[in-house]
Structure formats: C-alpha cells, structure tokens
Design brief:
The structure is a single chain. This protein has 15 helices and 14 strands. It has 401 residues and is α/β, with parallel strands linked by helices. It folds into two domains: 148 residues, Nucleotidyltransferase, domain 5; 205 residues, Nucleotidyltransferase, domain 5 (2-Layer Sandwich), CATH 3.30.420. An eight-stranded mixed sheet has the order 5-4-3-2-1-6-8-7, sandwiched between helices. A hairpin with a 4-residue loop joins strand 4 and strand 5. The mean pLDDT is 95.
C-alpha cells in the first residue's frame, strides 16, 4: 500500500510517501519533502527520493490546498508516482485528540468534528492539521484518510498522573488535565525496543527520552504510557529550545502583574523566549551551546547543565514511578546525536545502578545502539525515532479495519 504522510504546520508542510507491504517486515520510504513559507511572498517546495535524487519547485504557495497540489506535483515529477490515484491512504499528524481519541482513527464527519472541538486545546496546531486534511480530501476524495494523534499514546495515564491538584471542576468543566505530547515518538521507540529484544509480550518498563527542540520524557510499562512530562500544554516538564519546562505558577502571576495583564507578552516569553535560548542568551540549538561552552561561554555552559540536570531528575522520578526500569531510551535530535548530553544525564544515575559505556556512547551518533555496560541495572539505548513511519503503519492498520 502506498501511503502519503502529511504533517501540516501554520506555514510549512512535511510529507513522506511510503510503500508498506507488511508492517515491520516490508516497508520502504519512497520520497520525503518539505514545503516552506506557505502563504508568504516566496515559497519553496522540495523533495528527495530514496535513491538520493532531489527535486524543487520555486513558486508562491498561497494556502494549504495549493501546498497539497505541490506535493502531488513533486511526487509526479520525481517519478515516484505516475498518478496521484496510486496513493491508497493518507495519514495526518494531528496534535491534539483531547479525551476523544485513545488511538488513531479513520477520518469521517464525526471524527472531523471531534478534532475541531479540540482546536481550543491546541489553537496553534489543530486548525492547520485540519487544513491539510481538508485540502487532501478535496484533491484526492477517494483515498481514505487517517488521523494519528500526538496525545493518544498518553490516553492510558491513570488519574493520579493526569490530574492536577486544582478544584476538580477545572477538569470536568474546563478540560484541564495532563494530556502529554510527542506520543508518536514515545510509542515508536518503546515498540522498537520490544522488537529489538524480540519480546513483545513481556511487560517492559521503559523510560523514553525524546530530546529535541521540544523535549519530553515518558514512563512506559507494558507498551502503555503511565506518566509523561508534558502536561496540559507542551510547555511543562523539561527545559526545551525556547520553552522553560516546569515553572512555579506563582511566577506567571507575578509576571502578569508586571506586564499589566499582557497575556500575549507572557505567551511569547513562555513559548519563544525561554528555555535554552533564554538561559544562554544566544541560541536554542544544543550544538551551538556545546561549542560555545568549549569556548568558555559561561551562560551556554549553564544552559547545558540545567538541561541535563532536569532530564536526570525526571529519569529518577520515573524510576520511582515504575519501581525500576528495564531500559532508558534516548531519541530525538539531541538524544540521538549529542554524546555529551547523554553522558552528563547519566553521570548522576550510578546510584541507581545505571552505568554508561563511555566508548560506546562516544561512538554512537544517530544510530540504534546499546550504550550501557553489561552490569547496568537498566540498559541505556539510543533508538532513532521515526514518527512518519508510525503514522504510515497506523494508516494501513486503520484502513485494514
């Protein structure tokens, strides 16, 4: 089955075309691409085929419908498809499924309406995700389309993990609870770990660390998320590229008073000006900060130190929540490639029996590898995430039902 995976943002669209004959057995990436600056003066559209050929289209892309048209044009231009009708299913990343969705869903009118209801919970993401779906439906009305939700994997959280200690009515009436995000990534690497061990049946206890510009950690037991660091929004939890993670709510009240109730200014501070960028004053990119630290930049070094400390602290907490862990898995751009970060995160975990292999850690960049010593009570792994592949698999499963 040829499956098109679409991830729509406000002004960008990422896509992949995959051919899946048998899930986890016969899967092939055919092409991947990106359309940038949708709705702006100058737009760009590009794709790269599995054999390394690149194709580009440089012209204005005014909206998501035209962006989807460009996707089809690129796929035809690359020779990957001879006709858009060859696409047998389309999988869409949907950020928020609220409490409606515990798994991926074939999109019909009821599902579309439920996703629309969740727009108030994710106003920066769900509307654009829906725009991509509606544009694809209009251009390719015969292809079944599937929604794969970032939040669905965390729908298994118990009440003790997802409820905040606020008046209960804020949950029942206002939907305030921990939803969690990065679910497709946490699910992919936890399933991949079980497959590496060749034992899907065992109730593995895994701490999955998705570290990139956005960061989150999940405690996974028996393939189900039982706790996760992101909360009602993706701001809570770890230090991130431009988000602060955990902050005393009293600080926000104090700043609102200082800003004279300028909520938009506080929103920008929390989402765009904090995290690694805010602490370092120079960059939200871990690669830049590690280099600056070597050059003696104190604030860059402090940002890295705080980042690693927060990750280590959450790992310790989830060790307690799971009553021990079989494995700690690093994934995401930082988790897969930042050797120094992995080393510093694990430095303080020896007391819990976690022992990193320094040589294996140094040698591992972007590869699937066990990087702990044989005597470590919890094995430590690097497993590259592949959210698009998981979306494609779920698309095949949902259509098959």
């Amino acid at each position: 089955m040829k499956v098109l995976v679409i991830n729509c943002g406000s002004s960008s669209l990422r896509f992949q075309l995959l051919d899946i004959r048998r899930i986890e057995e016969d899967e092939k990436l055919l092409v991947k691409g990106l359309i940038q600056r949708i709705g702006e003066g100058e737009s760009s559209a590009s794709c790269t085929t599995a054999d390394g050929r690149s194709f580009n289209l440089e012209e204005r892309v005014p909206d998501h419908k035209r962006a989807i048209e460009k996707v089809f044009n690129l796929l035809l231009k690359s020779g990957t498809l001879s006709s858009a009708e060859e696409i047998e299913g389309i999988g869409h990343r949907m950020v928020h499924g609220g409490e409606h969705f515990r798994e991926s869903a074939l999109i019909d009118r009821d599902v579309e309406n439920a996703i629309e209801e969740c727009c108030e919970l994710a106003p920066l993401h769900n509307p654009h995700n829906l725009n991509g779906y509606r544009a694809a439906r209009e251009l390719l009305p015969t292809a079944p389309q599937v929604a794969v939700f970032d939040t669905a994997f965390h729908a298994t959280l118990p009440e003790r993990a997802f409820l905040y200690a606020l008046p209960y009515e804020t949950y029942k009436k206002d939907k305030v609870r921990r939803f969690g995000f990065h679910g497709t990534s946490h699910r992919f690497v936890s399933e991949r770990f079980a497959r590496i061990q060749n034992d899907h049946e065992r109730s593995w206890k895994i701490i999955t660390c998705h570290l990139g510009n956005g960061c989150s950690i999940s405690a996974v037991e028996g393939g189900k998320s039982v706790d996760t660091s992101m909360g009602f929004t993706p701001i809570e939890g770890l230090v991130m590229g431009t988000r602060p993670g955990d902050v005393d709510p009293g600080v926000l009240l104090y700043l609102l008073n200082r800003f004279k109730c300028d909520v938009s200014k506080l929103d920008a501070l929390l989402n765009k000006q904090s995290g690694l960028l805010g602490m370092s004053g120079s960059s939200n990119d871990m690669r830049d900060l590690l280099l600056k630290r070597k050059e003696g930049d104190r604030r860059a070094g402090l940002a890295v130190e705080i980042f690693c400390y927060r990750v280590r602290k959450y790992i310790g907490a989830y060790m307690a929540a799971l009553a021990g862990a079989d494995a700690i898995v690093f994934t995401g751009g930082i988790g897969e490639n930042a050797v120094e970060v992995r080393g510093e995160v694990c430095e303080g975990l020896q007391a819990l029996g976690v022992i990193l292999d320094p040589e294996k850690n140094r040698a591992c960049r972007g590869a699937e590898e066990k990087i702990s010593l044989a005597g470590s009570t919890s094995s430590v792994w690097v497993i590259p995430t592949n959210e698009e592949l998981l979306i494609a698999r779920d698309t095949v499963r949902c259509i098959g039902k």
